[in-house]
Design brief:
- The protein is α+β, with helices and mostly antiparallel strands.
- It is 45% helix and 18% strand.
- It has a three-stranded antiparallel sheet with strand order 2-1-3.
- Helix 1 runs antiparallel to helix 2.
Amino acid sequence: ATAAVQERMRSFGKLGSELLLPALALYADSNNTAGEPPVHDVCAMVSVTEPSVFTYTPALVRVETTGTWTSGMTVTDFEATGGQNTLVATDIDADKFWDVVLGTYGSLAGSMDQRA
């Protein structure tokens, strides 16, 4: 969530200042030094409600349970010769993504301010 996206969230009044931005502050990424937190959970929801936001690539994905590579994590093989079992989002139209997300939040902003 870039600074520009966070500014758009602020424009939603209480919804932005009391819910969205504080929730966003809870996301952490040790590789992010720009103050632009990732929004993995929101990506998962948008992939279901508006799949055209993403580009998908077939892959073999399994959960590693024996500790051979890494215990309890998913292992993804894009070159699997034994067949793929899912589609993995490998690219995103970020502008469209935020238009979908912030458009949904924006439709709620007025009703939250009226409840105060």
